[in-house]
User: What shape does this take?
Amino acid sequence: GGGKGAAWLGGGTLRKEAWLEGALSPALPEAEAQRDAMQARLSSGWAPWYDMSYTRLVRLPEGSALALMLCDSGASGADAPRCLEEARVDWGPGGQGDVTIRLGAHAYDRSYLQLYLATATCNVSIEVGGGDELLAIVEVVAGCDGTELVLAGSSVWYRVHEVSAAAQTLSFTPIGDGLRSSVVHATQPSKGSALLLPRRVEALPHLRFDLAGGGSVGFSSKAPLPAARIRATLRAAWEAEQARYGAYGEHAEVKMAVQAGAMWNVVYNPLESVIAPVIRGNPWGWDPAVLSDDWPYVLFDWDTHFAALMLSLDAAGKELGYSVLIQVVKAKSAEGFVPNGYAPTRKSTHSQPPVGSKVLLEMYRRYRDLWLVELLLDDLLDWSGWFLEERTLPPLNMTALGGDDMQAARYESGLDDSPMYDGHFFAVTDNKTGYGLMQMYDVGMASMVAMSDACLAELADAAGRADTAKVLRARSADARAKIAAHLWDEQSGIFVNRLATGRFRRRITPTSFYPMLSGIATVGRAESMLRGWLLNASRFCITPKGNFAGNDDTCYWGLPSVSADDPAFPPLGYWRGYVWGPMALLTYWGLSHEAYLDVPLVTTARAALCKQMGALFLTQWRAHRHVCENFSPWRNATECTGMRFYHWGALAGFIGLLDAGFYQRPRQEAAAFT
Assistant: This one.
């Protein structure tokens, strides 16, 4: 929680007794009570809440779990029997090399969601209507001879149940006061083939259905319903969801894809509440001692903040966005910073870009929910103060990256292997901990810190904390003045990182545009950066009309993570030329700053950036239903260059929705969702 923000702002420490008096109370503060009530509302009903699989449907708060499995004799037809007990796009379980998943629409309220699940010999469509009651239908699209659909019942997170199977039902009876029982009714009796099931699946209460010859299987939790009734109800839910996308006009397809990119990664964990990890599954191994797949998760800092923003685009999703934002900000360390990543048993010892205050401010401007500001403001002030105390590099006293070594400092940038950080220029500044700083003033991080403090000032004003706002504005103004004075490189015509020795490090990435985030660049400098760099076909490849005219095929889509004339670009790599959604958003925010609203060249560049990034986003969505962690800049790229359903990839499409006025100037939304 918060409580220390005033100490940072005052430059001293709070008296222990005063801190205790403010921290200890027999009742929750009003904002915390609202958080609890909101998260209780969200954590209810049937949905694919389980992190490790899209096809395990869980009812909250009870923890009743229904797994939809395709079972066959293995990828080659001669292997040991297998069931797709977990299904996810990224880092799927072993033995699923032939499995393809295409994720479709996903309503905020879970009233409708759809995916295709396919093996080498079977392709099915799965449609689900969640919430208080469960409806679903599994329909054969192609093949499926030798494949069964198995519905297996269990429970998750140590929530004890009695689960039983009958001829056509699975029954769930949770043990505990006030918990609801469920009976899931299939549209036909359980009847399998000669297929042997894996022992662990056979041991579960289950129903099985032979999919040979095609057809469909439906199921419902309220009462036994015929397949035709289930199909019609789900069709009506899909049409209602389409109407909500239709409110976005020509942007309807992007809206559906952006929403899906975020919603398919919304899960629940009892250790947190409703959260949004970057992907389904957990390949990072941060919790090696966990006893089952029920528990591990990792949340990454700026990734998760951006997911919260996307979820809050519509009033129907705002509380999901609030929950996701709350959980990542409240992961703040004892030292005062939001960590790069955190898991149940581990937190990073370094931070990442402080975008939380910008996200919170956008939410507040949109919805005016002051309780959320009051809940998170002190935590964000602590984070701001931590940057001031721990990430200020003399002699210019500007922001630098830090951590326990050079690589940790690279990670703190969020740009893990950027060419900007090639080499070693790290010095220990705390002999007790061994922590230190890069000996370089970082234009991207310094600009984001300045933006953060400006946002915090507006939030402090909203919370009635004028003195705090005054300090923050002065702090932001000081940072902006230093960036303008010391990080502009006349030779390059752009802002550039600078070593503490005074030498510029001329490895140019989109972070050089970030001084525009808080209006640091004069109009003349902004135009210089755009003409010489952003709109330059040999550098960042955004074309004036957003039509790719004149772009080389190797920098076709634009905004690579390092300038295309840098030696690191031709071989490409993670943050060494691939195109990233978060860079698109931060560059877009800079181009949208009020200081440049009447500058024609900035308006041109902003529209072109949105057009090119949106087109890039849709190439992979249309081809594979993928939302890419990062994208190749090559024209003929056929797949994501990173993970394939990573929520912040949708930022490439999201900026077009922002530019069309769908966030701060919302157009007509579906009546039931406003």
In short: The two ends are 31 Å apart (CA to CA). The chain has 17 helices and 29 strands. The longest strand covers residues 64-72. The mean pLDDT is 94.
